[in-house]
Amino acid sequence: MSQNDSKFSSEILPFQSFDLGEFVVQTIQNDPTLQPSTKHQYIKAIENYLVTGGSLADPQALTEYALTVGSSTRSFLAAAVTRMAQELELLAKGSATPDNIDIIQAAVFRAQALQKTIKIRQPQGERAHTWLTWFEAEQLLDACQRRVSGKAEMRIFAQRDRLAIGLMMAAGLRREEAASLQFTDIVKQNERYVLNVKGKGAKDRVVPISERLAEAIIDWQFLVSAEGLILRSLGRNKVPKESISTTGLYNIVQKRGAMIGKPELQPHDLRRTYAELGRRAGVQISQISKLLGHASIETTQEYLNIELDLEMTISDFVPF
Fold it and tell me: Which residues are catalytic, by number?
């Protein structure tokens, strides 16, 4: 921890005393609007910066460090610093009295300046999304059956990785949703298996799945003889643990993606693939949006890279 950070509270908030590094980590952990995986990335970005000896109170050091890391890490660091600064600003304002108003105003100015320390260059034009074709999706699933060396993969790893990818690509789950899915969440309704998914923002939804995916879940449960969470990390002794982290799912996608020539493949790309293959098969966008758990059709359109057609519209074909 930087020495500057330990005294930062007395510099910006003379009436307070706390360790700034611990303060920002606690702030992020207590933020109910952030997903666990996002909190992990924010805290990791902060910790990696502090390892360099830089101070969270030094705007110049933050700026110089941000130029040495990738865009995603820079974004995570910027967001974490912003949340820290916002919390410091609230803390300062809440401690204001007629006697310390000048000190409070200076503290607020410093906190506000920190929020603008790390500049994030916004991408121009359309966002670069990745979708897999049906053939590439099949290749990705097949890649789970072998090791990087080309030798056959051990059965337990092959089934686990194939199922993990299947839940994201063949059921459209976010990796947080896949990691928290339990065996009791798969039920049969009217001859069709469905998943009861605990979605983002406490928005639960029901996702119908194919017979093949349902069988894969059942086969996996038989193999691991387990209850509770479906997806598990595998220790060195190949025994399934109690759960798997979202980072673990990310690593599975990266590893298997690299095996088909797509080393930059992301878990969310599998979710986009689910949506795009559904659209190409004729599934209505309103249905796709509901299955993905989107709050609006506009969000689904971004997934599918669909733009409004102003030359031809449904209204042209309705009698009026």
Answer: 174, 200, 268, 271, 294, 303
